[in-house]
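From: lab user (bench 3)
To: helpdesk
Subject: output format question, protein + manganese (II) ion

Hello, I'm new to running complex predictions and I'm not sure whether the block I got back is the full result or only part of it. Here's what I submitted:
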Amino acid sequence: MLRQFELIERVKAYDPDADEDILNRAYVFTVKMHGTQQRASGDPYFSHPVEVAGILTGLKLDTDTIVTAMLHDTLEDTVATPEQIQQQFGPNILRLVDGVTKLSKIEAQTESERAAENFRKFLLAMSDDIRVLLVKLADRLHNMRTLHFIKNPDKRRRIARETMDIYAPLAERIGMYEIKDELQEIAFRELEPEAYETVTSRLEQLRAMAGDMVPRVIEQLSLTLAEAGIDADISGREKRPFSIWRKMKERHIAFEQLSDVMAFRVVVPTIADVYTALGRIHTRWPCVPGRFKDYVSTPKRNGYRSLHTTVMGRDPLRIEIQIRTADMESEAEYGVAAHWGYKQGQKKGTKAKKVNGADAGHQYPWLQDLLDILENAGSAEELMEHTKLAMYQDQVFAFTPKGELIRLPKGSTAVDFAYAVHTNVGDTAVGAKVNGRSVPLRTILRNGDQVEVLRSKTQTPQAEWDSYVITGKARSAVRRYVKEREREDYKNLGKQILANILSRMPAEVNDSAVKAALGRLKLSDLDALYVALGKHDLADDAVMEAILPGSSPTPGKAKRGKDTPIAPGGTPITLKGLTAGIAVHLAECCHPIPGDRIVAIRTAGRGVDVHTIDCKTLEQLSHVPDRWIDVAWLPQDEAPSHYTASLLVVAQNQPGALATVTAIIAKTNANIANVKLSQRDQHFHSFTLDLEVADLAHLTSIIAALRAAKVVSSAERLRA
Ligand code: MN
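Helpdesk reply: Thanks, we reran it on our side. This is the complete output you should expect:
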């Protein structure tokens, strides 16, 4: 077990200015807090956080990270409180420890490959300070190193599976290849003990037979290339049992046929050297047919460039060799780091000696960059900016109530979530609960939100959703539905228009005459005719002409009669000038009521909007006179009794003012549909009132009554 002074010595070795005091205090704190708790190994529990800290010193991480590692289990497993940690170690350490604790609480769901991939990305997105993730990975590594102490085989397998599916790929993703290899190795041994045994014993046999081949092959390669005058950097290693096993499985081949037991890398100065080196190597050793790949002239999709070849070495060994330039090498190695925008200029062209991973400082080049940033960042924000994992900053991860992870683009709303779960769920969504609280569907989701979609059988997609959904799936579903409904509206409208046209024909027209006209109008069927009429794509006169040439009042002129009725989907009221049964919208801008002089405006797909003749909206419509319809109110007893009108009432700022106003309105038998306090200062309150009134006379009497009241300083009908 790592001792207190050893740990501090390790930190001091790479960071002579490290704060020894805080390291000592963290050590004492974790020992005290974990007290007599024990690990499955029988060791005192605190050996675990200390070992985790030790792993991180191997990565030369900053003092905050080492301290966090020592404290990482205290919040979860001991009586230590956040306040204690904040008080003794500061808010920064608390934030980091808290981050690690949160990651540990999330139960991984690894039943499917997609779920595992989502979970990895979720971990990345949650770790907005990469040091949290580093501690978590070191924690997992130490738990894997001590996995064999756990007695329950099911538990061991579950942990190993999770490591294989989640943590090893995660380590790889952020460039920690060494940790990835070790995690995979231990998990492999646990999950497939027989396979592990087979591969390792074969490797041992091989070594016993041929000795350690790696240095000898490097020497031979060096000599061959030196003869050609190529200045090459050569490294090589024996492959790990897990990667050997994976290759065997992928290619369905036996160990003997496997060429990838050893891998070598040749790094040369120029692209010309790359091909020269290849030629030399192929001259010296016979190449294995079918194994040569030129990713230099044809790079892989992620930009990876290198030559790959396999040659026959001394029987029975085959040797895999990658040949590339220093530039290609750094691209391949810093690929991930490059994603994060880390500077890498000074790394290019440096010659790293990496025989058997001897030079540890070069194993994690991006980490060195990270350390530079940690040291040099001017502010907390700048630090966050640099250490954030930019790769997934454009995504958000939310859970279903059952814990399934749903990945969405950033800015997604509850509707996007609903559609991501299932189209049916989206179509019938009426509301959502986020983390147990009811929220509107337009609510933008945040990382880690648990979202429950509330549904109703009678709900259908709403046109307004289109204004705030951002995923393609949700958007296309909403639009498709709205379009269908619109077409249905046009069809109904067109049916009524056709009935009106037929009634104006000089002679009686039967169905077959109408059907015969479809061909002349180049329409496929009756529905198409309805839609064309409803959409205003086809003029009334054109239809009349098609049915009975010479029958339209203005042959050849595409203009619809002024009194043509219109409109489904509005209020069921009737106006003079429109055919009975056709619904009408009373415009929201001017709220016409009976008694007002009005005009109807034909609106594509919506029917007619009725405005008061003095409404400002009409000014914008003066250029389309053919959409105007002259209409008038029917006598009172034939019309419904509720019309909405808006009032602006300014009342004195005194107790009971609003009550007085509403009492006056109640006395006039009008309903208040809505009240809004629109302005308020020291002396006056302004209210906007939506009233349900019978007609203009009714409204006028209400305004008069209000103006008569003492508290009311003015009452005005509101117009757009
Ligand atoms: Mn732990």
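A quick orientation on your result: Residues 501 and 540 are 7 Å apart (CA to CA). Let us know if anything else is unclear.
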